[in-house]
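Final paragraph of the annual report: two paired records, presented back to back.
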Amino acid sequence: MGAAANLELPFSEPDSESVICLEPESGGARAIEDENFPFEALSVIAEMESWRKEINRPTTHIHKWWAQRLGTVFRAMTLGAFAPTGTDIFDLFYKPVRISYGTVFDPFMGSGTTLAEVTKVGARAIGRDINPVAHLLVKCALSIHDRKAIFSTFKAIERDVAEQLKAYYRTTLADGSSADVLYYFWVKVADCPSCESTVDLFSSAIFARHAYSKKFPQAQAVCPHCGGINEVHIESKEACCHSCCNTFDPSSGPAKGANATCPKCGHTFAIAKTVRAKGTPPEHRMYAKLVLTAGGEKIYLKATEEDFALYESAQRVLATRVNPYPIVAIKPGYNTNQVLGYSYNYWHEMFNARQLLCLSILADRIRVITDPLLRELFTCLFSGALEFNNMFASYKGEGTGAVRHMFSHHILKPERVPLEANLWGTSKSSGSFSTMFEGRIRRALDYADRPFELRRTKDGKGSEKVFDLSESIGSNVAENYTAFENGKQIYLSCGDSGATDLADKCVDAVLTDPPFFDNVHYSQLADFFHVWQRHILGEAETRIKDTTRSDFEVQNADQGDFTARLAAVWKEAHRVLKDDGLLAFTYHHSRSEGWRSVLQALMDAGFGITAAHPIKAEMSVAKPKQQAKEPIDIDIILVCRKRSRLVTHHWNGDLWAAVVPVANSQARRLQEMARKLSRNDVRVIVMAQLLRQLSHAVSTQDALLALDAATGDVDDLIEEIHKSQPHFHKQQGE
């Protein structure tokens, strides 16, 4: 649920002439450990960022990564980790702050959110991730780039291959004029097991609708009799085809759920089972296209013989190319078994022949870029375009970005009505190489040159950008720790964060966002990108293997393995952290096992929790969140110190007296900002405060026994806090 429109937030005017310097101090509490840390006000700002993260923090959104955290949160965490206790962090948030002598380590750097925020305040940053895709993304995002060289390289690529690619997305209109094809529409087909007729796996004849269909109810439907394209009302149950005059129901189709019914013989069959029986990936049929006329008009049309011939010519040309694409088998796994079940056995099978041809041409051109950093940057852009140019992408419709990328559900979901986009693209394209250059690379460069923060306007009705608070983003990245010790600002590495080359007690703070104990395995999904990055950049360094999977990944659905691997990283963090330094990380989970694992891993590594603050989490419009019954909208910031610096405690019936008041207070503070909390939101708050107290127990065993015994009390407190919420009117994002 979004924050209310007119909130009474503190308001601070930036003072660019007075730079505030924070330095690491020996001992003493930090502002992030204060009970009055302004998480509720910061959550409002984080919410504003979350609606368009790719615009509000573009530097770390030049490529897909999963669970990308909010820069607002990590800026506040960075300031709070270095500012002394009693500092007004919300006021400091809008001041030009520099932490010139501080060093921060992120062992799960992901898309680089922590590192970008750290460098914006002038601190030194060390980032490590076990996944090569993440490593490439962050290196491209945080390196110093020659803007002129980037734009001249893009122009050179455009000059060399754009027309060649666009030629495969052109069609002739009825008046004889030529038009660009923005998108080709395809449908999966299956042979009826009974009569062997080819069945289109449409669940509805409507294949295109407006994103705001209540306001714009016109939709496009394909006639099941002749394939003609018809404009229909989105709620219509009967339509007459303009081409063949037959009537049909636009809302229905042969496919319903997991089954399909053959229109010819009436036999109903299981789709997945029928596809698997063939042993090859499902076949597709092209049936429509959206063209862009010379006058700028968009028109939906039926696919013609010319379109089929053009596609067949692409197939023939592809067959003549040498090593045109990576041929890498998809390995079994929780997040890949679904596509393996549809007989997609290789990553390249997720693309059609024309996509493979055009990707091959573009990849070959990028490979010959001589400057290594530019070659990596354009490979990163190419890799990002893969997400929108495959046969798992689909059509979102008019009124929004037209292409729904393949990871919108965070899984590899075979798409029954895939969309083939124009790879190079036009000015009206979505998800194309050229438009993503403008929308991702150019925007990221602009932000890196002059970062900004978001702030609620004085009238409380909108947001505004606040500039001139931060240093520009960009550094000569160190490739080893020795180079970092010799003065470089950023050191990035790829590998197991449970074993680094960092010196003992060399960092002032460890700020991060660890993977969840769950079933979304980033490496299984990231292989989709990795095989192409390896195809262009070669098989050395971080791309020796054809997969990003590793035995040392923390992310794991097995509780024991997750705990052990997370503990190994926290132990390494304990080693490299100064004795008076802080470990602070964001986390949430809906299951008790996830919290038990975190507590055990922290205590086994020698850490205890000194503070826990709820804060706005991730993306407000994420599909998995929208589909959850009790969605989690908040993370918890867990602030930790070495247990050797803490006083341990025997809990003798006084545990809940320490937990309940703080949990109640934090929930109330969020509710007073008009933020409705789900039961799982409340669970995050309660569990964090429980872990905070238990982490001061004399031993890990004592803490875990107390945690296991607390289940009933936890559920009772969650229900009490949830039921005590005031009534809320619906807000944006609810």
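The closing record of the year follows.
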Amino acid sequence: MEVRVTENVATAAVVPASAEALVDGEQTEFSPSEASNLVESVNADYLVLVTGRAAPLESVCLNDQLTADSAYQFGLTIHETLHILKTAFGALQSLTEDRVEPAHREFVHELINITEDGAIENEAMTGDDFSQRSANRLTLINEALTQKPDEYPEDHEFSFGDALLKALHDRLIYDSGVTDLLLDETDTQFTFATDADRKAFTEIDAAIDQLATDILSLRSDATVAIHHHDKAASIKRIKRTIRFWNEDLKPLLADQDDPEGDADANDSDEAGEPESQQSGGDGDTETAPEDGSDGGPSLETTESGDSRQSVDQYPTIGDEPDPDGVDEGDEDSTDTSDGTDATDTTDDTGTTDTSDDTDDPAGESPASEPAETTGEDTPTDDETDTPDTPEQTTSGQASLTDFGQDDDGDDGETTPDTDTGGDTGPTASRDEPAAPDTAAGAPEVETAQEATAPDTDTTSNQPPTEEEGQDSPEVPSPVHEPESLSSADFESDRQQAAETAADATVDETALERDLEAIDDQLAVEGAGQFAAVEDLDILPEPDPRDVPDIDWATIEGSAALVGGTLAKELRLDQQTNHRDGLSSGSTINVKTAYRLGYGDPRTFTETLPGDEKDYFLVLILDRSASMGPSYYDDEAESKISVATNGVARFALACESLDIDVAIIDFYRDDVRLVKPPAVETEFASEQILSTETGGKTPLAEALSLARTLADSSPRESLIISMTDDKPSDIDAVASEIAASYDPVCSLTIATDCKPGHPPEQAETLLREYDQTTTVYDPSQLESRLDELASLLSVY
């Protein structure tokens, strides 16, 4: 599992790491080339995609965009990670297919969206295994995604379906205040579309409260085996939500549509048959309720909702218990040593035979449960596919406690590694946003636990039972009011955003310092046509037509290999070195002696161990016409493409070891400063990787400017040219190499030559360079860059 921030998703999504999934996904907006590049850059089975688009400041308590973006992205990542850890996506598919008629599966998925979101976020916000920061971030994303009263038009009408989803969302996740206004007869902004919608909602209101109560009590953190119970608790919640549909909602719709036929409509329910036998979609089952036909309540939804992934669109990741082996009311059914259910047995008619009534959640009979098990033949470990120990389920899963941990050691959350699983199921749109729970919208509820239940915490996975008369501990309820967050709650995100921004932008102070040093050096001795830094063409804008599709991740991967070689060489280098630019010392540095002429004392040298060397690298890139593809039409890859990739990869490798790199090129006879030392290579990627070519080969002028840059730095410098070594003036090049205080090396690009036969000019210059290596085939580039990496330890 890898997390990637991308602007190709509106909020967040979990998808298989395949180009097809990225292109075809409802939440993703990738072109085929973008999808292929992303898949090639990752080493994972699944991707957690988090939006890189700006967080909506108008909906949150922050006015700092960077801080809002940081908290928003972390909140979305936590939410998706919670789903991966805690939601049984495979069971969701099988249970809805078995127990919900096809015409209404999409609506039931909407219900499960809300109940699962509410449950997993409530655990993160109230559980001991998560920090307050995770709760703040979850609240923030739901503040941003929840539609509030002032975001609705005047005289807005709710269908029964819209009102039901909004009420469940307000009571389980985030209280938008809309439901209260809808039920307020004096309010004129929100009304029901029809009297039938209003009547149906009034009748179902208490059942919505009971569903919210039961869902919050079905937690996976009630025992020490947290991961072992995560998806078992999810299966119980899914079953409870489907039971709400079959036993509370569907009969209500049938009753509102046809009061005369209510008794006949529920015959199969009373017989205890599974819902799949009532309305499994095979054509022989009872007719599904009419949604709004004949004047009844309508389940049609018109709410815009957020764009997060629907639970039926997630891939199945990791192992899950067999849904038939998890009873909705049995908190430890997946944690028994012999795989049997110690508290619940079901006869062939679907009725329950137990020694007490604690397994019947909310005091209701499990009429929608499958009727496969009996008291004599309960599921075994093999049948339930449930691990014997928590470790079998948690293998590869990290705790979220450390995700996003700051340097100061505060608790945070961490994205887990997860096992691979199945494919995605049918898709459905998501109409109702998910948001953190709030005390304002959720009722105060209590759970009933079996008095003799062994080894359980005070917080039970088991939903409350109405028949229980004993006192029960409270179910953890939502902890945030919408107005409870303030800017101060996101101080860690503010610090992190500032650090990220510093890494993602050019250090203007360092750039100014570099340019001043170059200007000082030019003032002393000049560099060909350059007498001052104002004469330089710095970070030139390339022609967009010459900028290829940049697969930066591949370049970074290759640079990492070169960087490994470079790091090894530097570790092995035990030579002594000298630190230059000091104001005192026993040796005068010839490179900086000119400073004494205008009162700058930084001319001395200090000896220090080799592993403390401080390097500076100047790369020269040849863009002359001879580097263009027209010179060797039979070649698979142009010389300029090989050279630009070599420059980018070597510069990245050096920067990974804190070695500053400057890049010079020449194009149409002009020498340019493509990348000053203070500018990170990635920020100059278009300038470096542009394939534009033209003009002669003023290599001598480029070497003169490279010498100036090297002399402007007190660090140990090395100059490397990447050229086909066909300069306009060989003698001038040789003179510049001889005049350089720093070693001058060459990577000769000779992909248009036979191996062992470099250009004639290159053979002449071979005796002038300190070191040379030649690329005859583009596939040799990486190995030749390794050779260049070893040069830094030689000098």
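The chain has 24 helices and 18 strands. This concludes the annual technical report; the extension proposal builds directly on these records.
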